[in-house]
RNA sequence: CGGGCCGUAGCGAAGCCUGGAUAUCGCGCCACACUGGGGGUGUGGAGAUCGCUGGUUCAAAUCCAGUCGGCCCGACCA
């Protein structure tokens, strides 16, 4: 027997976390790099996961009164210039289309021809083009609210990209709403961040903290940005979703105005909110282990994979028949409101290899069925969250499949929550703050830090220290709103308590 | 965009410093055999214009210049 590696993924998380992350994506067949710089190919297994995320989110958007629509990929450059802060925040990272044709060049290749009057930018986000459209749609308070979402791809010419976490092109949804009053828009902003938190916790099994961003971390042009923040296994924070209250900034820039009931001409109040394929990265870094990806059952493209075991053709037909009936019966069972998703893997590959294939891809449950099991009417099941397999009778298994998946989903959440708790601290002085965010081994930093909850008085004063330690203010958690104390750095009275962390 | 490391078969690497013949190894892949509740064993085989462009040279994977791409760190990050 050839020696198998100790872990399916190498290096392990402890050895080299960033490299581990890359390897999990590869081993789990989620995505790969493309010939285009910073852009990735999402492979079928990764895309099926994304589709499950989309479906769940989309249902939640519909349930909160939104409809889908679609706006253009291209935005006239002038649109981006309208909102001052927005220009500042976006201009640098945009892909720009300047020509509309190709023609042969003398060297035998092709060259751009047909210069555009006005350059088009590839949308980095759609506030401007959607706002311009809304301006035409809104005349009266009776036209409000507008509650629209779009599923789209956007391009941000990032200088440093990482699969799923920050790619030049990514898939996302962006909600854009218009309201007659500030209160209503604020309410919408909050409603949607709660939808995201609900999705993160109940579908992704990823605990998140809802909070508001400090002025420096806000979306350009927003009055308030709410985010959900999650702790990854290397204890860094990941912003997993944002919801912006845009006030009247965009409606003024784009003249989204309406006549109120009282007959006054008023500017509307807008919001925008989004989550992206970054959530796949979040999922990987929240649950995966040194054997590969671990999928929360609710989002798993396949809940159960059946691995038939046989030696020859006569055994094969017997086993396949049994396995097919098992598949049918499992598919009549429900988990979290949907029928169990079962697949049979009858590929002609070695048993061990086949098993590891599914382990690395994160399939929650593997079922092994061979002639001996059929004799006893039993199955051998392996759970992705446990290393050992157990034998169950067929009826026991079928009867408990829903419970097992529910247990696994909850188990993943609990484990992630524990990690966050274990690595969250309250800090009220600079020395502790420094110690918390400084690795013991400077040359090869070990996994360290976490979430530090600290009072602070003024964002600007903290800047040098935060820069030095590479720490950022993640958010001012909703639940710590209103708490007061003294600034961990200056000792001055502080009106805010925030989560500080290193971040992606 | 700055710093560092790196592009050699599908994947991972050696060779490069000190230029020279058929570019080496492991995994994977294909075929056959033995196997068979586990990433197994054996035999045979396929697969690489050494990232790209140019230069130096009788001769370049190797030296030089440029360029494209990747990873990590940093700056930036809606």
Key terms for this structure?
504 residues; five-stranded mixed beta sheet; 14 helices; globular; RNA-binding
User: What's the β-strand tally?
Assistant: 27
Share of helix, binned: 25-40%
Taking all Cα atoms into account, the compactness measure Rg is 26 Å
As a percent range, the share of strand residues is 25-35%
Please mark out the parts with pLDDT under 50 across 5 or more consecutive residues, or reply none: none
Distance between the termini: 42 Å
Shape: globular
Give the overall pLDDT as a whole number: 92
Biggest sheet strand order reads 3-7-8-14-11-10-9-24-27-23-22
Largest sheet: 11 strands, mixed
Structural class: alpha+beta
Count the DSSP helices.
14
Describe this structure in words.
- With 504 residues, this protein is of the alpha+beta class.
- It has 14 helices and 27 strands.
- The strands form seven sheets. The chain has an eleven-stranded mixed sheet, with helices on both faces.
- It is globular, with a radius of gyration of 26 Å.
- The relative contact order is 0.11.
- The structure holds one RNA strand of 78 nucleotides.
What are the SSEs and their pairings?
Elements: H1 17-27, E1 31-33, E2 40-42, H2 44-63, E3 67-68, E4 74-76, H3 77-80, H4 84-90, E5 96-104, E6 110-122, H5 127-137, E7 146-155, E8 169-179, H6 182-202, E9 209-212, E10 224-231, E11 237-245, H7 249-254, E12 257-259, E13 265-267, E14 269-276, H8 278-287, E15 304-308, H9 313-330, E16 334-335, E17 338-339, E18 342-344, H10 351-361, E19 365-369, H11 371-376, E20 378-383, E21 389-393, H12 394-422, E22 424-426, H13 430-436, E23 451-456, H14 459-469, E24 472-477, E25 485-486, E26 493-494, E27 496-501
Parallel strand pairs: 3-7, 15-18, 15-19, 22-23
Antiparallel strand pairs: 1-2, 4-6, 5-6, 7-8, 8-14, 9-10, 9-24, 10-11, 11-14, 12-13, 16-17, 19-20, 20-21, 23-27, 24-27, 25-26
Helix pairs in contact: 2-6
The structure holds one RNA strand of 78 nucleotides.
